[in-house]
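Quick check before the chapter quiz. The format below is the same one you will see on the exam, so make sure you can read both the input and the output lines.
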Amino acid sequence: MLDTNLNVAGKILNGRFKAVEFALTNVCIAKCAFCKIWKQKPKVFADSGKAKAAVERLADFGAAHLTLTGGEPLLHPDIFEIVRLASGRKMHCSVLNAAPELVIKNDAAKKLEEAGCSLICLSLDSDDPHIMAESRQIENVMAQLEQAVKIIKKTGLTVNASVLIWKNNWDRLKSVCDAANDIGFDFISLNYPTFSESEVYELGGDGIKMPKRDVVHALESAVELKKTGKYKIINTVSSMKNTIDFLNDPKSVKFHCLGGSRVLFVDWFLNAYPCMQLSKPIGPILELTEEDLRLPACNACSMSWYRDISMLLHGAKSAPYLIKALTESFGIF
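Here is the expected output.
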């Protein structure tokens, strides 16, 4: 873990740090109301050999953080080998999980720990078990989630509650965060509702068709929750305020997104994008050079993971925010 943290810090200091989301498959057990990926046909798994080559290339480009997502990444047949390769390249590696039964049944947490994974993120949409089951179309998903967290806590992995702000929780985030604490999550990350233009990574649905004022209200309440110190919310106060500024007046934003240059998305076809919700790829990741990723900053949307990380990578003007973020939760994105 020390080598990983030193690699993250070193890449930040030399200006080459990149954070990457890599979607390994569109296969998923969950059938979320705010995602259409599970409906896609044909079902696709990223070619294992090419996926590993992509991880190597990303590491060469300065990637020091890798989030493996999907669909459901734990369904990829070589997920543990891909994690092992990434950790061997000193990447901070996290895995997103939408169906906690996969953690319970397959000893996945222990295998991920042995492969060098640092973090597992489990989706938590509500503090209400019935709403959770309905939103994910997985019976008894809350009970499964609680069991999965207990299993993960027996390993050296950190476990994060991935909370999407949507119609059923925007005005009750405190209750959701209380539930995350009660279940035993180490951290909470908030995802801001956005619609995707991508035909590959299809995000959207009635659940996130919300007035901007409701999203602003949710983020303002999240800022206050973080300030109490009771809830370990990964999103920094400054990044949430930056997103509030964007929602109120995009022209007022001081920190634009560094999609493509510092944060990146790779899909199961091995195409690279500045972010997961854009329709046009930069190109096949195995054919790109690092120079191809020197893209201008973007201010088109409020995609949380991309903007939150980008805010910390704007050189000197980001320094105070970066120092504070690293002090709060070093190595966690």
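If your answer matched, good. The beta strands are 18-23, 63-69, 92-97, 119-123, 158-164, 187-191, 263-266, 271-273, 283-284.
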